[in-house]
Each structure stands twice: as structure tokens, then as C-alpha cells.
Amino acid sequence: MGRVEGKVCLVTGGGSGLGRADCIRLAEEGASVVVTDVDVPGGEETVRLAGSNAIFMQQDVADEERWQGVIADTLSHFGKLNVLVNNAGIVIPGTVESVTTEHWRLHQQIHMDGAFFGLKYGIGAIKQNGEMGSIINMSSTTALQGYSPVFAYGAAKGALRTMTKHAAVHCLNSGYKIRVNSLHPGVIDTPMVRGMAAGTPIPASDVSAPPVNPVGLGEPMDVANTVLFLASDESKFINGVELPIDNTQTIQP
In what order do the strands lie in the sheet with 54-58? Predict the structure, then answer.
């Protein structure tokens, strides 16, 4: 207990899947948690599971003005922000030939714009308190290898991987006590992975890669435990890295 005691953590897409697991694990270790999601019932259920030190805020991460409101409300309620987990997203299956322009742009808006706004306003808030801060961007193994059925999703997650490195260097060169890292989960056992249907928008908090992995499925807490480590001061010298959570998936020949 207490690995992130006293820290205020904001997790986007916290209403289900990986985001929910992140919120619960951070709360278990003493953090105050802001759960955000477009899914109100899901977000409120996560708050119930995470405990009395968690609150819910409805948020569309592609809305810049709402980002400013969420950050302001977090500072008003808790007085500071230490950790941001950019987890929200969707995945709509489609190859480079079959993906629609609408779906391509939707992936950009939710993953890339959402993470950009989170980085921009999250850094601005975290640097104010002078404490150790951490931003964790939820990418995917699809950013590290080729998998044609999720072209738009993989492209957006690849951009998030690169954004992470630029932001990490910016914070370091600016003298901020803020680390920025990306996580790259493989196939994680969630209801949405098990029920994945072609052409159906799926919350990316529930699936980070296609359900084909010879070494089996990971569990949401495998990712949440890694989020906890990067959120804590235990990882104070880890900055700008891309960390697969995939049990060798990305290095299998």
C-alpha cells in the first residue's frame, strides 16, 4: 500500500477495460483518481469500484475545451495533478484499402488529438506543483509491428509513440519534473477482445492488438501494475521509453 500515496491521477477512458483496471490499481495504492470517459454509467461504476477517493468527470477527449475544463476541475477539487494516463480511444477494424475516411479521421481525433490535448494541458498543470510527475500514453503493439486489419488504429498509436518521445525531451529540457512514457500492450483478456466484431467501434481501453497471440492473453492488471510503477517515484529515471506488455509478442519470429 501507498506506492502513489498523495498523488492525484487522471485516467481517460476509465469507464472499462484497461482504464478501469488502472484506476482501481492506482486507488489501491493511495492515489486520488479522476476517472473520465464518455460512458457515464461505466465511469461511475469504476468510481464505485475504486473507492471513496475517486471521482468521475464525463469527457470526450477530442474536445479541447472539455480538456481545459477537466484539468481546471481536477485542480479545483484536489489542488494539484501529478499523473495523467492518456488511455481513451477506439479501434475500428479496417485495412489501408477498406478503412473509410471518416473512420481514419475519427482515430486521429480520439487518439492523436486527445493525447495532444492531454499532453499540452496536463504538462501545464503538473509542472505547477513542483512535485514529481508522470504522463503515461497508452499505445499498442500495433505501433511496433505490421497488422493490416487495424490500419488507422495502428497509425494513430504509432503517432502516439513518437509524440511521447518528443514530449519527454521537451519536459526534460525545460527543467520540469515530468516523465513521459508509452506503454504497448499486446492482447489483453477483456470482454471486448473476446467479442471483437469486424466493423464495430471498440473502446481501445479494451483491446490493444488483434486476438492472435501464441503465448496467450494478458490480464488488465498486467497493464495496470505497469501503469502504477510508471506513476510512482520508483520509476523516476525512466523517461521517454516505449514498453511492450506482450510476453514476447513483438519479438516472435
Answer: 54-58, 32-37, 8-12, 83-86, 133-138, 178-185, 242-245
| pLDDT reported for residue 202 | 57
Show which residues are catalytic. Answer: 153
pTM of the complete model beyond 0.85? yes
What does the alpha-carbon distance between residue 34 and residue 54 come to, in Å, rounded to a whole number? 6
b/e 160-182 (16+ beta carbons within 10 angstroms → b): bbebbbebbeebeeeeebbbbbb
Q: What is the pLDDT of residues 83-120, one digit of tens each?
A: 999 999 999 999 999 999 999 999 999 999 999 999 99
Helix (H/G/I), strand (E/B), else coil: 11: strand
* Domains assigned to the chain: 8-251 (3.40.50.720)
- The answer to whether the CB of 90 falls within 8 A of the CB of 204 is yes
State how far the Cα of 238 lies from the Cα of 201, in Å rounded to an integer. 34
Question: Which strand (E) or helix (H) includes residue 173?
Answer: helix 151-173
